[in-house]
Design a protein that fits this description.
By secondary structure, the chain is of the alpha+beta class. The chain has 2 domains: 10-58, no CATH class; 67-198, no CATH class. Helices cover 43% and strands 17% of the residues. The strands form 3 sheets. Strands 1-3-2 form a 3-stranded antiparallel beta sheet, with helices on both faces. Strands 4-5-6 form a 3-stranded mixed beta sheet. A two-stranded antiparallel sheet has the order 7-8. Helix 5 crosses helix 6. The radius of gyration is 19 Å and the shape is elongated. The model is unreliable at 1-5 (pLDDT under 50).
Length: 201
């Protein structure tokens, strides 16, 4: 950990926070040369806002849409990814407004202390690099993985059809990629996805 004599890299920290809607973690601040006492000093003087344990925000950074999703994700990053209805919403594949922030972590991940309004999904199916996309600094499941996850979680069939058709029409995925993603899931999930792929838009 850096001590108080380290020269803090304000520009470097601003660059990190700028890619994360103004948010940054304690670890990221330390990497930029900010010691814990210096972080606390900036909180007291109003330069930084303490959002949650290990999470801060530049006080004067402009607000952005869905920044609460990014903040929730950063608390569990890099193990977590935004998923399910939250990923569906960010990708613009559904008109359903999520009633919580959905994150997926490996089942072996033990740092499970979700904030109010956050749902943690654990999985034994690894979220591989090819299953992930980046939107405005947030790592989330791609269209195919998101659709399969929400179908397995019980998304209404009409919403499944809408999401599948939208993802294919916008080039986010293909029928082949969807069938590959759903191949390891149950028969009900496979049948719903196959039906949605086969239905006209």
């Amino acid at each position: 950990m850096n001590d108080t004599t380290t020269n803090p890299d304000h520009a470097g920290l601003f660059g990190i926070a700028s890619g994360q809607a103004g948010y940054f973690t304690t670890a990221q601040a330390h990497d930029a040369g900010f010691s814990s006492p210096l972080i606390r000093h900036h909180v007291r003087t109003g330069r930084f806002m303490h959002v949650a344990r290990g999470l801060y925000r530049l006080r004067d950074y402009p607000s952005t849409p869905r920044e609460e999703v990014l903040a929730a994700w950063l608390r569990l990053a890099p193990k977590a990814v935004v998923s399910h209805e939250s990923a569906l919403d960010i990708l613009g594949l559904s008109d359903v407004i999520p009633d919580a922030i959905h994150l997926t972590v490996p089942r072996t991940f033990r740092k499970l202390s979700p904030a109010l309004g956050v749902i943690i999904h654990t999985t034994v199916r690894p979220v591989r690099p090819r299953d992930i996309v980046n939107r405005d600094g947030v790592r989330l499941t791609n269209a195919a993985r998101t659709i399969v996850d929400v179908v397995e979680a019980g998304l209404a069939p009409d919403q499944v059809q809408r999401a599948v058709r939208s993802a294919i029409d916008r080039g986010f995925t293909t029928p082949r990629q969807l069938r590959s993603a759903v191949s390891s899931r149950g028969r009900r999930v496979q049948a719903l996805v196959d039906r949605a792929i086969g239905e006209p838009g």
